[in-house]
């Protein structure tokens, strides 16, 4: 099944579009176009974006949303199924292993793992 991206006007496979679980349809723009828009938005005003990110997770609106969605195991199950479905595709497995074997990604993952361990050791 294919769909035409509303941004780049190229016909692409439906798997290249994000799926809105809560609405039940595929997005109109492909992932590449959405990522490019996000990058441009961030590059235009990075300080504003950082400030938004810092403040957003402390808002009551986010806390309320998080509390509601934590209690819905069916949504988590749907998300897990979507991830499993995506990762079971042969091309996505190859892309994922290629990405995870890049030296910069390996280094970042090691750093994050050390950071998590330090946090656990401080708490425990």
Could you write a compact summary of the structure shown?
The protein is α+β, with helices and mostly antiparallel strands and 124 residues long.
Structure summary, number of beta strands: 4
| CATH architecture grouping of the domain at 1-44 | 2-Layer Sandwich
Order of helices and strands: EEEEHHHHHH
Provide the CATH topology of the domain at 1-44: Wheat Germ Agglutinin (Isolectin 2), domain 1
Distance, first to last CA: 51 Å
Specify the number of helices. 6
What gyration radius follows from the Cα positions, in whole Å?
18 Å
If you average the pLDDT, what whole number results?
85
Main sheet properties: 2 strands, antiparallel
Query: What is the 3D shape?
Result: globular
Description:
It is a single chain. By secondary structure, this protein is α+β, with helices and mostly antiparallel strands. Helix 1 packs across helix 2. The longest helix is centred in the last third of the chain and has 21 residues. It is globular, with a radius of gyration of 18 Å. The relative contact order is 0.06.
SSE topology:
Elements: E1 2-4, E2 11-13, E3 17-20, E4 25-30, H1 31-44, H2 46-56, H3 60-70, H4 73-87, H5 90-100, H6 103-123
Antiparallel strand pairs: 1-2, 3-4
Helix pairs in contact: 1-2
What brief labels describe this structure?
124 residues; alpha+beta; Wheat Germ Agglutinin (Isolectin 2), domain 1; two-stranded antiparallel ribbon; 6 helices
